[in-house]
Specification:
two-stranded antiparallel ribbon, 327 residues, mainly alpha, 11 helices, disordered N terminus
Length: 327
């Protein structure tokens, strides 16, 4: 495997049906090359998992959330003061990232990534209910600027928070267009409109991840995959609760198939297993819904055995098709 410091290459899948190790995929031209130049080598290949880095990052996130909880609660009467606290926290995180000891820099990434959208929320809050459309838009722009421009570009957590902000932006735009308003969404609106737009957001994020993977920007694709899966899962739960479990089960099959295709295109084991989990849950849900109330247990078992057997028998052919489509 070519390291990110040697050449702009990322992991790509091997040929369909092959057990060989995936070869490197070069960074694409045009927009992909521009993104690579902005974000640097961190956009190409994900770093090896490190428990040490993870604990430092989570520690910074917990500390930041504690400060922001205080600012949002104790300073609620003064949005400007709460904004100043969040802005100072964001500045402290960036300073730690730039000038702090190397082992503490993951905490700076977490602090700045959390404090930036919080500062924007406090600044735009009016009567305790900020307009989440504007908050989502400005947060996404600010976090994308941190990721692509700097002062320390290329940190995946900043991009992850930007994608979350895009998700909230899409939900806010939908609620505004349907007359719900820009304030805090109700539970009902979150399950009706939020669920539908979350499925759309999940599809858009997974599509972006597929494109990034195919253009050699494997690490940049990861936040879109992660948030895309979460958005799709929320949308599936919301629509299933609103329209019945059978619809939810069918949607789970579609989402699972999309995840498996995306996983095959980027050699991603976690995404593949998430897709298969969606497919399995969808089949079990459909089996339960097709069974009559009187003999639900027995019929559910029989239908599940039939559907599971069909998946095991025809699945390999579908997997080969997904690999060909994904690559």
């Amino acid at each position: 495997m070519v390291s990110g410091a040697e050449a702009p290459f990322a992991a790509a899948p091997s040929s369909p049906g092959s057990d060989t190790i995936a070869v490197a995929r070069p960074v694409g031209d045009g927009p992909a090359q521009w993104l690579h130049e902005r974000a640097g080598e961190r956009a190409v290949e994900r770093p090896r998992p490190s428990l040490e880095v993870g604990t430092v990052g989570v520690g910074g996130a917990v500390a930041a959330m504690g400060v922001l909880t205080f600012a949002g609660g104790q300073l609620a009467d003064s949005n400007l003061l709460a904004f100043l606290v969040a802005a100072l926290l964001a500045g402290a995180g960036i300073a730690l990232l730039l000038r702090g000891p190397e082992e503490l820099r993951p905490a700076g990434v977490a602090m700045s990534g959390i404090a930036v959208p919080a500062a924007i929320t406090f600044l735009l809050a009016s009567g305790g209910e900020p307009n989440f459309t504007i908050v989502g838009l400005l947060s996404a722009v600010a976090l994308l600027a941190l990721y692509l421009v700097g002062p320390a570009p290329g940190h995946t957590f900043h991009l992850t928070m930007a994608v979350v902000s895009m998700w909230f932006l899409l939900i806010g735009l939908t609620e505004d267009s349907l007359g719900v308003g820009g304030g805090l969404p109700s539970i009902d609106s979150a399950f009706t409109m939020g669920g539908s737009i979350s499925l759309v957001a999940g599809a858009l994020f997974l599509g972006a991840a597929w494109w990034l993977d195919h253009n050699g920007l494997r690490a940049m694709a990861t936040p879109f995959l992660t948030i895309g899966i979460l958005a799709a899962a929320f949308g599936l739960f919301a629509i299933g609760a609103e329209n019945g479990a059978l619809i939810g089960g069918l949607l789970a099959l579609v989402i699972g198939a999309a995840l498996c295709i995306a996983a095959s295109g980027g050699d991603r084991r976690g995404t593949m297993w998430a897709g298969l989990a969606f497919i399995g849950a969808g089949l079990l849900t459909i089996a339960g819904e097709l069974a009559p109330d009187g003999d639900k247990g027995l019929v559910t078992m029989l239908v599940a055995v039939v559907l599971g057997g069909a998946l095991a028998w025809f699945g390999p052919a579908g997997a080969r098709w997904a690999e060909e489509l994904g690559s």
